[in-house]
Amino acid sequence: MIRTAVAMAAVALATAVAPLCAADPVAPQEDQPCPPTADEATTMPTTPAPRSGANTPLQCHEGRWQPVALPAEPSDRWWSTGPVIALHGQGMRNPNLMSGRWSGTPLGPGNRCHVEQRAVISAGVVSAPAATDGGPDQTLHFDVAPTASSVEFSGYCLWTRLG
Prior knowledge:
Blueprint: H1 2-21, E1 42-43, E2 58-61, E3 64-67, E4 77-88, E5 100-106, E6 114-122, E7 125-126, E8 130-133, E9 140-144, E10 148-161
Antiparallel strand pairs: 1-2, 2-3, 4-10, 5-9, 5-10, 6-7, 6-8, 6-10
């Protein structure tokens, strides 16, 4: 009888806590703490920065999300928390990231990384979007072309340029 009661209590507790564990990560905000895995990674906030009224990139530096001075150098590490972060490739002026081999690593159990790219075909003409999806808990590997005009990262993932 006691075992049954304990088992039922454990199931009830696990069921109550499950939604909290599965919640989306908090989007980075200026001057807020960042996790150690985000060290030197850059992100785009999902809400406009209060001081500038624009989406200024943030970089995790010394444990806090800090605004990046614009125009910024391209970053080799990007952090996404779920919603799309839209970036410019080398096919545009002031790229946010450089071409090459990249990986997207899920940062939580059951998460997937998704990347969508468009490339410049000729002056004023861009390709249809090319999407690449990773499996749950699987690191995604892909190439960003030197002609990439836009690159969109989504999922709770760390994006890293390799090599």
